[in-house]
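Pilot study result, target chain (302 residues):
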Amino acid sequence: MTTQVAEHDQPRCESVLRPGNTNCAGCGMSIGFQLLDQALEREPASLVIPACCGIVTAGAFPTSAYGVPTAASTFASSPAVATGLCSIADLNEEDHPVICWAGDGGTYDIGLATLSAAAERNENMIYVCYDNEIYGNTGGQRSGATPEGVRTTTTPRGKLEPKKDIMAMMVAHRIPYAATLSVAHRDDFLRKIHLARKTPGFRFLHMLSPCPTGWKSEPDESIDLIRYAVGSGLFPLYEVFDGRRYRLNAKPDGTPLDEYATRQRRYTGAHVDLDALQDSVDMQWRYLNTMFEAFPAIGDDA
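Predicted structure:
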């Protein structure tokens, strides 16, 4: 006789991020966790978080601000740790997602080798980079994600080098799914998490994450900042399937770049040439439009 399990008997988790955590007001990472929680709908999941603000969030042992099993890894090894958890899930025939949640320091720089290795092996994990464009947990030093000209504690006159194109690097691995996430575009965010959840293999999601402390911005403007970044074209919303097929989710709406830059004091007194930045944005969009026209992703699941 077959026993049917009622829906309310299925295992459910607490929220990914519990209330009462010590994260800063306006933290983009916290907003991202809230949207991730909505997308997962309390489905059981495991987190792997390297050294970053995200692992400080957990608080002091034996308590935790996370409502799902969470492994803390060294700066460079979150994809390697997640690989182990994926292997255990496969052995146990479990379908619960394993999610790496890492900052830009652990993604663009210190963790790049293990990230590339896991992507090349097409490990069955979701990797989310919450990109606040600095080493936010250790004082706001520049990272490979810091934009050119922006001031940090180690580049007081402005960073000399341009920001790495992490999406291009991951797309070059021909992974099944890569996409950018905006905390100001909830429906698009949830759709991409749902799509990543049902796509097997390595999935990479890049989320621009406001850090009021490091960006020198107002906490209540974090959502607006991302809306300005998307509207100006500075942070494109798009998806790439199998490293070849492109889908654009939102095109620039004419929002001027200074709507974004003037609300962050990290741009004040820095050597940021907004005209040159606009040229860079325009060039990026010419490239994305060309790729979309030549290699379009068709259908809901591409």
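One observation from the pilot: Residues 274-294 form the longest helix (21 residues). A full batch analysis is planned for the follow-on phase.
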